[in-house]
TrEMBL record:
<dbReference type="GO" id="GO:0004636">
    <property type="term" value="F:phosphoribosyl-ATP diphosphatase activity"/>
</dbReference>
<comment type="similarity">
    <text>Belongs to the PRA-PH family.</text>
</comment>
<dbReference type="InterPro" id="IPR008179">
    <property type="entry name" value="HisE"/>
</dbReference>
<keyword id="KW-0963">Cytoplasm</keyword>
<keyword id="KW-0378">Hydrolase</keyword>
<dbReference type="Pfam" id="PF01503">
    <property type="entry name" value="PRA-PH"/>
</dbReference>
<keyword id="KW-0067">ATP-binding</keyword>
<protein>
    <recommendedName>
        <fullName>Phosphoribosyl-ATP pyrophosphatase</fullName>
        <ecNumber>3.6.1.31</ecNumber>
    </recommendedName>
</protein>
<keyword id="KW-0028">Amino-acid biosynthesis</keyword>
<keyword id="KW-0547">Nucleotide-binding</keyword>
<dbReference type="InterPro" id="IPR021130">
    <property type="entry name" value="PRib-ATP_PPHydrolase-like"/>
</dbReference>
<dbReference type="GO" id="GO:0005524">
    <property type="term" value="F:ATP binding"/>
</dbReference>
<keyword id="KW-0368">Histidine biosynthesis</keyword>
<dbReference type="GO" id="GO:0000105">
    <property type="term" value="P:L-histidine biosynthetic process"/>
</dbReference>
<dbReference type="GO" id="GO:0005737">
    <property type="term" value="C:cytoplasm"/>
</dbReference>
<comment type="pathway">
    <text>Amino-acid biosynthesis; L-histidine biosynthesis; L-histidine from 5-phospho-alpha-D-ribose 1-diphosphate: step 2/9.</text>
</comment>
Length: 87
C-alpha cells in the first residue's frame, strides 16, 4: 500500500536510475503524445468501471489513471505540489 506522494517519489527514482524492465521508464521514453493517450484510455476505463463494474474494478482503474497522471507530470517536470496549489 502506498500514497499518491509515495508513488510519485518512487517514479522520480525510476526516472533517475532507469532500471531494466520499468514500466515508468518505458512510458517516459514513449513521449508526451503516448502518455496523453494513456491518460485518456485510463480515464475511459474509470468511466466504464463506474457505470458497469464492481467497486474493486473501479478502484483498480482509478489507480491506473493516477499512475498515468503522475507519469505525464513527471515527463513535464512537474510534481504533485504544482497540482495541490490549485486544489
Ligand atoms: N501503479 C503502477 C501502474 N499502473 C499501471 N501501470 C502500467 O499500466 C499497465 C496496465 O495498463 P493497460 O491497461 O494500458 O495495459 P496494457 O495496455 O497491457 O499496457 P501497455 O502494454 O500499454 O504497457 C501495466 O502493465 C503497467 O505497465 C503501472 N505501472 C507501474 N505502477 C507502479 O509504479 C511503480 C514503478 O513501477 P515500474 O516503473 O514498473 O518499476 C511501482 O510501484 C508500480 O506498482
Amino acid at each position: 500500500m502506498k500514497t499518491f506522494d509515495e508513488l510519485f517519489t518512487e517514479l522520480q527514482e525510476r526516472a533517475r536510475s532507469r532500471p531494466e524492465g520499468s514500466s515508468t521508464v518505458s512510458a517516459l521514453d514513449a513521449g508526451i503524445h503516448a502518455q496523453g493517450k494513456k491518460v485518456l484510455e485510463e480515464a475511459g476505463e474509470v468511466w466504464i468501471a463506474a457505470e458497469y463494474e464492481s467497486d474493486e474494478q473501479l478502484a483498480e482503474e482509478a489507480s491506473q489513471l493516477l499512475y498515468r497522471l503522475q507519469v505525464i507530470l513527471l515527463a513535464r517536470g512537474l510534481s504533485p505540489h504544482d497540482v495541490y496549489r490549485y486544489l
